Each structure stands twice: as structure tokens, then as C-alpha cells.
Write a sequence for this structure.
């Protein structure tokens, strides 16, 4: 979904071959959005370590402007505050933001039976000049599938390798 990792610069659409992912972090001065640089090259453990490092810097008031600029897409997690659903606001000039919410047990139908299962709502806000409805839904379905099957789809079947630094 290349347009999800794009932006408009004047009249031109720029698509990036790298993923500098902004993450919303609560700090003493409110919400801050530091950037995980080249996230596509990091393992799960590498991303986790970078999220932790940036969150600590933000909470301690040590985050720099350079660490908060240049993101190509944003992920926000209102679920840590108990949010069940919200509409995240795009961080210009990015094309979109994914809002993830808390995980709660809900009754759902699986194979014709009502069962209790963990449910998490996600919301995608996007710049319709760059991303159309079909692509936005395709992206959300890919996110859903990856969250439901992380070992296969996000760890290439090897949790051991994904958890290396």
C-alpha cells in the first residue's frame, strides 16, 4: 500500500521507500509524536526497544525536534488510556494515521457459535487526495490479518529471528 506511506508536496505526490513511523507518546507537555526511523529494517525487538527509548525521552522532556519530524505515517494507541474508538487526526503532511484502541472481551460469532473473544477496534484517517477508499480498506484488512496472525505475517514464521535485536 505505497500511498499509505506517501505525502503531497505542493502538487506532487511523494512516495517513500522507507518507513519512518511516528508514534504518539504521552509526555508531560501532552501528546508528542517521535519517529521510529527506518522501521522496515527493524525486528520486533528492535521496534520495541526504539518505542521504549523514544517514550522515555519524551516523558523525561528530552525529546528533540529532529526526533519528532519527518515521519511518513503515524500510529496512535488510545487504548492505553481506555479508548474504545476515536477518530485520529492526520499529522500533516503525512497521508494517514492508524488509531488503535483498547482490547476488550466481547461476544462474537465464530463457526456459528457465540463465544467470548478479544476485540480491538482500529481507525484509519487518511488524506483522500492520496488514498482512495478501496486502498484504505485493503490496508485495514492487511493490518487486521497481521494482528490476528503475527507469527506468520509479521515474523515470517520465525519468532526467534523477529525477537533478535
Amino acid at each position: 500500500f505505497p500511498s499509505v506511506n506517501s505525502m503531497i508536496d505542493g502538487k506532487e505526490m511523494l512516495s517513500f521507500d522507507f518507513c519512518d513511523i511516528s508514534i504518539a507518546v504521552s509526555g508531560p507537555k501532552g501528546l508528542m509524536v517521535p519517529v521510529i526511523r527506518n522501521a522496515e529494517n527493524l525486528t520486533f525487538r528492535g521496534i520495541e526497544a526504539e518505542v521504549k527509548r523514544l517514550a522515555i525521552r519524551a516523558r523525561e522532556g528530552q525529546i528533540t525536534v529532529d526526533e519528532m519530524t519527518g515521519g511518513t505515517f503515524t500510529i496512535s494507541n488510545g487504548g492505553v488510556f481506555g479508548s474504545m474508538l476515536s477518530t485520529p487526526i492526520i499529522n500533516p503532511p503525512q497521508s494517514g494515521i492508524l488509531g488503535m484502541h483498547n482490547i476488550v472481551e466481547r461476544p462474537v460469532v465464530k463457526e456459528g457459535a457465540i463465544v467470548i473473544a478479544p476485540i480491538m477496534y482500529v481507525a484509519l484517517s487518511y488524506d483522500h487526495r492520496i488514498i482512495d477508499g478501496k486502498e484504505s480498506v485493503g490496508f485495514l484488512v492487511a493490518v487486521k490479518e497481521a494482528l490476528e496472525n503475527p507469527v506468520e505475517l509479521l515474523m515470517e514464521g520465525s519468532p526467534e529471528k523477529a525477537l533478535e535485536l
Summary: Strands lie at 6-9, 12-15, 21-23, 25-27, 30-32, 35-36, 73-77, 96-110, 113-126.
